[in-house]
Amino acid sequence: MLKKLSLVFVLALIVGLLAGCGGNGEYQDGTYQASAMGYHDEVPIELEVVISGGSIEEINILDHAETDGIADSAFEDVIPQIIETQSTDVDTLSGATITSEAIIEAVEKALEKAQ
Predict the structure, then answer these.
(1) Domain boundary assignment for the chain
(2) CA-to-CA dists, residue 24 to 1, 81, 87, angstroms
(3) Residues 45-60: tens digit of each pLDDT
(4) Going by CATH, does the domain composed of 28-114 fall within 3.40.50.150?
């Protein structure tokens, strides 16, 4: 009897976990804008995050005053990592750490709006 009860309990847990993983993603579809201060604090990094099917589809930089050449590598490296992992828990780029952190912060702000 205890074996059957344990089996039912384990199956219920599995079904519950699978139900929690289903759905269209964790965000509301739409385009959300946010900003964060980067290395040059006179103009924030402004970006938009496009959510489609509940997932991060695009991240577009709208405006920034970061140093060309240095910031470009952060934009080209950090943004694809966020989209690929569907998370802001990504590595910052050495040499453009502040810019990378600002991108991550702005994306987090946009995602808060999308929840």
Answers:
(1) 28-114
(2) 39, 20, 16
(3) 999 999 999 999 999 9
(4) no
